[in-house]
């Protein structure tokens, strides 16, 4: 069973219709993706103390993936300025379509959690982002198990009791009596 991973989509600060459509399409696809918990927050640079977006990010206690329009350095700086630090920045953002995510400082054993950053301006293909999120989900092992990962216990199968056979003459007589009631 694949691990569950929080995925946060940070919306564009000022987005045109194409950017908003990509964000909406990704959220719709990720809502039904197995093993993904999707959250949407405003642009990282617009998060203020006490905002629900910032509270959401501060509440993530396991490894996670960030989808953002910012480059990885700007995203890291914005997170650290808002008190979200101590990360083992596992994966930096993808800059070009043909470039795979680069491995960052993954050796720190004292880091609380790891973060994978995917830039939203790499492609307009939701399929590409879904493949990358699946790949990262399989690479990043969450530090905290989600409650929804509890095993599903199937109820025991019950075999219905055998029904006594009714002679067909008795059945015909019962049907005739029922028809008489309807008339």
What are the salient characteristics of this protein?
183 residues; alpha/beta; Rossmann fold; five-stranded parallel β-sheet; 34% helix; 16% strand
Describe the structure in your own words.
By secondary structure, the chain is of the alpha/beta class. Helices cover 34% and strands 16% of the residues. A five-stranded parallel sheet has the order 2-1-3-5-4, with helices on both faces. Strand 1 (5-10), helix 1 (17-31) and strand 2 (36-41) form a beta-alpha-beta unit. The chain is elongated, with a radius of gyration of 27 Å. It starts with a strand and ends with a helix.
Structural class: alpha/beta
Rg of Cα set = 27 Å
CATH top level class name: Alpha Beta
β-sheet strand percentage: 15-25%
CATH-defined architecture: 3-Layer(aba) Sandwich
Query: The biggest beta sheet, please?
Result: 5 strands, parallel
What overall form do the CA principal axes indicate?
elongated
Query: Which parts are unreliable, with pLDDT below 50 for 5 consecutive residues or more?
Result: 91-111, 142-158
Level of helix content? 25-40%
**Overall average pLDDT:** 75
Going across the major beta sheet, what is the strand order? 2-1-3-5-4
How many helices does DSSP assign? 5
Give me the strand/helix succession. Answer: EHEHEHEEHH
Distance between the termini: 61 Å
| CATH topology description | Rossmann fold
Number of domains: 1
Number of strands: 5
């Amino acid at each position: 069973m694949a691990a569950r991973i929080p995925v946060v989509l940070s919306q564009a600060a000022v987005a045109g219709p194409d950017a908003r459509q990509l964000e909406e399409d990704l959220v719709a696809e990720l809502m039904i993706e197995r093993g993904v918990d999707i959250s949407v927050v405003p642009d990282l640079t617009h998060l203020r103390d006490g905002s629900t977006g910032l509270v959401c990010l501060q509440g993530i206690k396991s490894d996670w993936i960030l989808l953002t329009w910012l480059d990885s350095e700007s995203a890291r700086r914005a997170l650290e300025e808002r008190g979200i630090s101590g990360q083992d920045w596992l994966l930096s953002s993808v800059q070009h379509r043909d470039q795979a995510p680069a491995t960052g400082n993954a050796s720190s054993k004292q880091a609380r959690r790891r973060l994978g950053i995917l830039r939203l301006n790499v492609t307009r293909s939701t399929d590409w982002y879904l493949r990358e999120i699946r790949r990262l989900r399989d690479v990043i092992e969450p530090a905290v198990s989600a409650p929804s990962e509890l095993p599903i216990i199937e109820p025991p199968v019950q075999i219905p009791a055998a029904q006594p056979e009714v002679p067909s003459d008795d059945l015909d007589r019962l049907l005739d009596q029922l028809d008489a009631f309807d008339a």
